[in-house]
Design a protein that fits this description.
By secondary structure, the protein is mostly helical. It contains four helices and no strands. It is elongated. The two termini are about 25 Å apart.
Length: about 140
């Protein structure tokens, strides 16, 4: 599976799992109820969906231009870390506002989620690529002649 269809399937599975985990994590870490935390989780999911599409498109554009093909451990770590860093910049202010805490407190609350999502993103991508195959950008080109 390639192209837009791959991206839509990826984002759908990734975010459904992420909303459930984020709701639970935010409720536990903030002391807020699940319904209040759920609003932040759904909002963060919507932001993450758009970020996911933009980030993965940019990453695959960059990846397609690399001489070394495939997705080794270093490339997977770079992919997951870059994705999560972008989310931190966007979501910590949202959590601070919604949970009515300082940016620092929101960042501290988010540390558990950040750590979880670094691992989750890495594992999810590994499982997704094994189940659906590598995207065209990571596949070796057939040798001519």
């Amino acid at each position: 599976m390639q192209g837009l269809k791959r991206k839509i399937v990826y984002v759908t599975f990734y975010e459904l799992i992420a909303v459930a985990i984020t709701t639970t994590g935010l409720a536990l870490l903030s002391g807020q109820g699940a319904s209040h935390a759920g609003v932040a989780a759904v909002a963060s999911s919507a932001i993450a969906v758009f970020w996911n599409l933009a980030y993965n498109s940019a990453f695959e554009w960059w990846e397609a231009r690399q001489t070394v093909k495939g997705r080794g451990i270093r490339r997977r770590i770079a992919h997951a870390a870059g994705f999560e860093a972008g989310l931190v910049v966007m979501l910590v202010p949202l959590f601070a506002w919604w949970l009515d805490v300082s940016l620092w407190h929101a960042f501290v609350l988010d540390l558990g989620l950040i750590t979880f999502f670094l691992v989750y993103t890495f594992v999810f991508n590994l499982v997704f690529d094994r189940f659906f195959g590598l995207p065209a950008s990571a596949q070796a080109q057939p040798q001519m002649g």
